[in-house]
Amino acid sequence: MTTSHNADNIKQVTIVINGRNRVVNCASDEVETLERAEKALNSMIQDIRRQTPQIDNEELYMLCALNLSSQAEQLKQVLEREQAASRTVQHMLEVLHKVQPQPAAEVKTGASIESQ
Q1: Domain that holds residue 95
Q2: CA spacing 20 to 30 A to 57: which of 21, 75, 92, 113?
Q3: How far apart are CA 3 and CA 46, in angstroms?
Q4: Which CATH number covers residue 56?
Q5: What is the pTM of this model?
Q6: Per DSSP, what are the bridge partners of residue 22?
Q7: Which sequence ranges form a coiled-coil region, renumbered to this chain (predicted)?
């Protein structure tokens, strides 16, 4: 991957996908994310090619897109479950706070009880 700077913190980044160079405009603070995406996509391409050596590029890219969509959907479902669990915990904490016994006020009287 190579980069060159443009105005407004935008970089032109050259990435290699499936052996072909592509130039992508990328915010400076997103270059590392782009590098990870490049590696993940190339790894996915290699895995599919190992399983299906005769696949053409169009089908290869379609399978990659489907795999990525599936992964995104799975992550979305995990996030939704985590958010629901967080809301449940928050609600439980609120309920516990409402029903938690308050410390009893000490009652002082001048009388005492003596045992006989």
Answers
A1: 10-99
A2: 75
A3: 25
A4: 3.30.160.880
A5: 0.67
A6: 15
A7: 31-85
